Amino acid sequence: MPKDASGPPRSLLVLGGTSAIGLATARRLIARGARLVHLAGRPSPALEKAAGELTALGAEVRTVPFDALDPESHQASLGPVFAAGDVDLVLLAFGIAGDQARDESRPLDAVRVAQTNYTGAVGAGLLCGAALQEQGHGTLVVLSSAAGVRARRADFIYGSSKAGLDAFAQGLGDALYGTGVRVMVVRPGTVLDPGTPRGDARLTTTPGQVAAAIELGLRRGSETVWVPGGLRLVMSAVRGLPRPLFRRLVV
Ligand SMILES: NC(=O)c1ccc[n+]([C@@H]2O[C@H](COP(=O)([O-])OP(=O)(O)OC[C@H]3O[C@@H](n4cnc5c(N)ncnc54)[C@H](OP(=O)(O)O)[C@@H]3O)[C@@H](O)[C@H]2O)c1
């Protein structure tokens, strides 16, 4: 049965349980009333530490083993989360940037970037989308990237994986339209640690700012969120540049 999901989410599933953006978002949503957080990630002391920090904020936190590179294990990992009760929000926050120079000369490393960011997300995204549809409500928030809008020489392996992810998430959103389940695509620019010199503030952001933008996007029912917001215009101009000019201006 579809239910009114307009209020702030009470239960979260974070895929990429140690992600800086995922944790900043979880902290923010706990402050707004979220009470149950499933932190899915590769088992590690960092995952346990993250769980401890969120528990200290007043949430019940359960860690869930999840490896994006092992899609055949996703049902066994994530199925029990949905079987245990409704999940209001799934945050798909895992991903790796890779090392462009190294990955160009080591194709298997490049494939790992693509498999983590794209095919891992396809498997987990379809599974979570179906589970949300089954419960009749919920939002899937997908961390894409401005880097996916037009792949640059400097990071086209990562950029192309995000382009694929972004297209997939938009399509999944259309497939779920009208079911009570929403997909929100988030496109941050370069995310810097708080305190790092910002450079061009139109292009950079912080995990806390991404979390704030996600919360606002959830309240507004947005389909797409750019962070910072000004990136939308910048990237629309970048998208339209002829390739010779793009090659010269954008590295
Ligand atoms: N940081 C940026 O500048 C930026 C900009 C735009 C978009 N984004 C995207 O936003 C998302 C979150 O970014 P972030 O900065 O918060 O990332 P982060 O702090 O580097 O965290 C990345 C997360 O991905 C997880 N991960 C990597 N490989 C995995 C695998 N095989 N299976 C399961 N989990 C895996 C990591 O888990 P482990 O602890 O196991 O490594 C970690 O939880 C990513 O998709 C990223 O591409 C980031």
TrEMBL record:
<dbReference type="InterPro" id="IPR020904">
    <property type="entry name" value="Sc_DH/Rdtase_CS"/>
</dbReference>
<dbReference type="GO" id="GO:0016491">
    <property type="term" value="F:oxidoreductase activity"/>
</dbReference>
<comment type="similarity">
    <text>Belongs to the short-chain dehydrogenases/reductases (SDR) family.</text>
</comment>
<keyword id="KW-0560">Oxidoreductase</keyword>
<dbReference type="InterPro" id="IPR036291">
    <property type="entry name" value="NAD(P)-bd_dom_sf"/>
</dbReference>
<protein>
    <submittedName>
        <fullName>KR domain-containing protein</fullName>
    </submittedName>
</protein>
<dbReference type="Pfam" id="PF00106">
    <property type="entry name" value="adh_short"/>
</dbReference>
<dbReference type="InterPro" id="IPR002347">
    <property type="entry name" value="SDR_fam"/>
</dbReference>
